[in-house]
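Dear support,

I submitted the protein below through the web form. The confirmation email said the job was done, but the results page showed an empty box. After a refresh the structure appeared. I'm attaching both so you can tell me whether what I see now is the final result or a partial one.
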Amino acid sequence: QVQLVESGGGLVQAGDSLRLACAASGRTFGRNTMGWFRQAPGKEREFVAARTWSGTLTSYADSVKGRFTISRDNAKNTVYLQMNSLKPEDTAVYYCAAGRVAGPSVYGSDYSYWGQGTQVTVSS
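What the results page shows now:
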C-alpha cells in the first residue's frame, strides 16, 4: 500500500511559479513510477508528467513541456512538480499517483494509488 498526500497548491498570477510536493508513505514507494495528473472544472482528468522509480525516464504532456519538471527524492519518499511560466489554462486540481509500471506511463489506469489532490489556480 502507498498513501499519497499532495501540497503546494495555491493562487498565483500568470507567469508565476509553483512547486507541488507529494509525500508518500509505504515501503514500496521507491519501486513505483510516480505521475502527476490534473483535472480542470468540467474537463476530464489529463496526464501531466511521470517519472520512473529509477528516475531515468520521464514523460510530459505537450502542454507543459519546457515549463514543468517532475523530480523525485526516494530517500524522502517525495515527488515534486516544479511549474514555471504558469498560464490560466493550467488551473486545475493536481493529483499525484503511484503505479507499478515499467515506464513513465501517461495512462491513469496504470496507477493504483492516488492522492486527494491540491488546487492550483492561475489568474490572468
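Response: this is the final, complete result; the empty box was a page-load delay. The longest strand covers residues 18-25.
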